[in-house]
Amino acid sequence: MRANIAVLPGDGIGPEVTAEAQRVLEAVADRFGHEFTFREGLVGGAAIDATGSALPEETLALCRDCVAVLFGAVGGPRWDDPTAAVRPEQGLLAIRKGLGLYANLRPVTLNPVLADASTIKRETLEGTDLLVVRELTGGIYFGERGRRDGGQTAYDTMVYSVEEVERVVHTAFRLARGRKRHVTSVDKANVLECSRLWRETATRVAKEYPDVAFDHLLVDACAMHLIRRPATFDVIVTENMFGDILTDEASMLTGSMGMLPSASLGAGSMGLYEPIHGSAPDIAGQGIANPLAAILSAALLLRHSLALEQEARAVETAVDGALRAGYRTHDLAGQGEQALGTREMGEMIVRSVAEVS
Ligand code: IPM
Ligand code: MG
Asked: Is 109 within a domain?
């Protein structure tokens, strides 16, 4: 297969971890006989420095020309002035919106060999394998916002349409059919009108999937149950901001945020793939970041945008094998335990993919 893949490394550790993910995709292409062409673009702080915009026109055009986007991370102290008119995060939000990527898939699967790296007890974590489907192009992230009363009052608006809720809930149900067939819709319907619309709509969509169990949780209760009984969840579907918050929380179930990949999908096969961790400016440039979330995001790219399931599994198996063999990056290594650098861990996965028979 031939595929054009856009690579947007961004800021901080973004370039370091994305380079490893790209190398793994190159290894997949070699091993399985595909031809991937990588085209690099600017986004985030790097783009602001070069062009004044967090998402230059050329970058969006480049993405539209490709079948998938491999994305690093954006942001850093250099661009952190909260009063600045242009911020790196705008690049990410604009690209999600510009490409119509309304469903953000964040799988949270416990790798048993990492259970002790989590702050939560092993007994509680055992069997955790859940998927958060976060709505990504609506809600309070994209509603009207501003200041009034001479700047003394600020407002942000949450807005959802039936259509926006329907499409992402359908995505959640379709994915649940390939998993444990259980969807939990999360909202704040006891307070918010958007959540009441969300609940009504999700309930209606659920009737089309009688083979999938369905329930609702309020977001505050969900936050609690996620760390109380994580293994009982299968697919969680929720609006943009709730999904943002719950997935940072859920990431701690796996021991390290450095392990979690994500896929952002729209109506077609185009997708954007990024680790859920940020740009980690505190460790940027040191070659010690964990590249596994970026590499696992590349696996999701193979699966969701290119429909290369066998290749996706090969990457996931390689990651699993490295962890089982005891290899750890700095974020996962215990006191006094030896840790691999970003490049070394990447190399480990590249070699193991090359050897797949
Ligand atoms: C995420 C991030 C982004 C978000 C930020 C960087 C805008 O936290 O992808 O979870 O809030 O969506
Ligand atoms: Mg977030």
From this structure: no
Q: For residue 207, indicate whether it is catalytic.
A: no
**Full domain range(s) for residue 178:** 119-254
Q: Which of 228, 209, 6, 1 is nearest to 98 (CA)?
A: 6
Mean pLDDT of 76-87: 90
Q: Which atom of ligand 1 is nearest to the CA of 96?
A: 12
Q: Whose CA is nearest to atom 4 of ligand 1?
A: 244
129, 243: one domain = yes
Q: Are strands 129-135 and 103-109 parallel, antiparallel or unpaired?
A: antiparallel
Give the pTM.
Answer: 0.95
The domain boundary, picked from 254, 278, 299, lies at 254
Dist CA 118 CA 148 (whole Å): 44
Q: Pick from 96, 137, 241, 244 the residue to mutate for probing ligand 1's pocket: most ligand atoms within 8 Å of its CB.
A: 244
**22-33: per-residue pLDDT in tens?**
999 999 999 999
| Average of per-residue pLDDT values in the chain | 96
Tens digits of per-residue pLDDT, 262-276? Answer: 999 999 999 999 999
Count of structural domains, the chain: 2
Residues 129 and 225 in one domain: yes
* CATH for 46: 3.40.718.10
pLDDT of res. 357: 78
Instruction: Confirm whether 141 is a catalytic residue.
Output: yes
Is 211 in the same domain as 336? no
Q: Which of 254, 287, 303 is the last residue of a domain?
A: 254
The ligand 1 atom nearest the CA atom of 93: 7
- Residues 131 and 239 placed together within one structural domain of the fold: yes
- Integer CA distances (angstroms), 59 to 66, 89, 100, 262, in order: 11, 15, 15, 20
Sign of dihedral through CA atoms 330, 331, 335, 338?
Answer: negative
Q: Is there an atom of ligand 1 within 6 Å of 89 CB?
A: yes
**Is there a single domain that holds both residue 123 and residue 238?**
yes
Cβ–Cβ < 8 Å for 317, 336:
no
Mind listing the pLDDT tens digit for each residue in 185-238?
999 999 999 999 999 999 999 999 999 999 999 999 999 999 999 999 999 999
111 within some domain: no
pLDDT at residue 324, as a whole number: 93
The number of the ligand 1 atom at minimal distance from the alpha carbon of 240 is 12
Q: Which of 65, 80, 116, 220 is catalytic?
A: 220
